[in-house]
Design goal:
By secondary structure, this protein is an alpha/beta fold. Helix content is 39%, strand content 22%. It folds into 2 domains: 2-100 and 160-241, P-loop containing nucleotide triphosphate hydrolases (Rossmann fold); 245-290, no CATH class. α4 (101-111) runs parallel beside α6. The mean pLDDT is 91. The strands form 2 sheets. The protein has a 6-stranded mixed β-sheet, with helices on both faces. It has a 4-stranded antiparallel β-sheet with strand order 2-1-4-5, covered by helices on one side. Bound molecules: adenosine-5'-triphosphate (ATP) and magnesium ion. Magnesium ion binds next to α1.
């Protein structure tokens, strides 16, 4: 059971002066119970790719399949695909439409035929999972802060009980506590068997929590591999706009002069190595003391 993308290309406004190639020959797979992160510079095609995963955009070249169901125009499976794959848009304003949060969150379960008497409880529990209390249910989604809007958008997708959750830069606008809460929610949902596809500029989260990272550069797949391999790739092929987190950058700098140093984003792993080498008096850190 997985989302697969094979050799997908997408061009906006083909044949016009506004023609823009957004994706070229991109392939990926994300199984249920796995976390795939998609990273890349601004304009590299991440949102275009995300919107293909639940049929908001339909493949013009290449193929997208969700649990074997092909995503294409007039496919009899399109409704089921959209039910299976919940997409949290990059900008909550693209997603929110209802007069109040209750209506907003009820939309997906109602649309999928959940019994009316179960919907209120589902709305409250989804809102609480996303980190907001019931006092928000009567409020207009348009009068909320950026971070609150994002949480409502996440709740409204969760209420549809998807098998895969695709989130396009969901940590933008969240404070560090809410960011941590969201990450633990995603870890938990993954543990419950959901496939998580996270579009992010936040390499710290991508390296720590993904099973696999796909990196895009100008619409092309540069690398798709385990976090450590992607980190090695970034060390030798830096991408402007994608910065290694501080610990990762420090470990990469140390490794330039100390090949035995670990290449890691994990402070404890680096510290263990530094302590071991410092105690043995062998380490020469770049730029002096740490
Ligand atoms: N609706 C559109 N019409 C025309 N071109 C578009 C449209 N949406 C995106 N593009 C172009 O397609 C390319 C990929 O855009 P996309 O939004 O997928 O990138 P992204 O990686 O999500 O960027 P960001 O990190 O800024 O969100 C860019 O060159 C962008 O200008
Ligand atoms: Mg985007």
């Amino acid at each position: 059971m997985s989302i697969t993308v094979a050799n997908l290309s997408h061009t906006y406004h083909p044949g016009t002066p506004l023609e823009t190639k957004a994706l070229e020959d991109v392939s990926l797979e994300c199984r249920r119970g796995e976390w795939l992160s998609i990273v890349g510079h601004t304009g590299s095609g991440k949102s275009t790719l995300a919107q293909h995963l639940n049929g908001i955009l339909l493949p013009e070249k290449g193929a997208v399949r969700v649990d074997g169901m092909e995503v294409r125009e007039k496919s009899p499976h399109l409704r089921e695909v959209r039910r299976s794959v919940g997409l949290v848009f990059q900008y909550p304003e693209q997603q929110l439409f209802a007069e109040n949060v209750m209506e907003e969150i009820s939309f997906a379960p109602r649309n999928w035929g959940v019994q009316e008497e179960r919907i209120a409880a589902l709305a409250s529990s989804s809102l609480s999972l996303a980190g907001l209390d019931e006092s928000y249910l009567s409020r207009s989604p348009f009068h909320l802060s950026g971070g609150e809007k994002r949480k409502v958008a996440i709740a409204s997708v969760l209420a549809g009980a998807p098998s895969y959750l695709v989130l396009d830069e969901p940590t933008a606008g969240l404070d560090s506590w809410s960011r941590r809460e969201l990450v633990s929610l995603l870890v938990r949902l993954k543990g419950e068997g959901l496939g998580i596809v996270l579009v992010t500029h936040d390499l710290d989260i991508a390296l720590q929590f993904s099973d696999c990272i796909l990196m895009l550069d100008r619409g092309r797949r540069v690398v798709m591999d385990a976090p450590r391999k992607v980190m090695e790739h970034l060390r030798s092929h830096p991408v402007s706009g994608l910065h290694l987190p501080e610990i990762a950058a420090l470990s990469a700098a140390i490794k330039n002069t100390e090949p035995s140093a670990p290449l890691t984003w994990d402070w404890k792993e680096l510290k263990r190595w530094v302590v071991r080498r410092t105690v043995s008096g062998e380490v020469h850190l770049p730029g002096g003391d740490v």
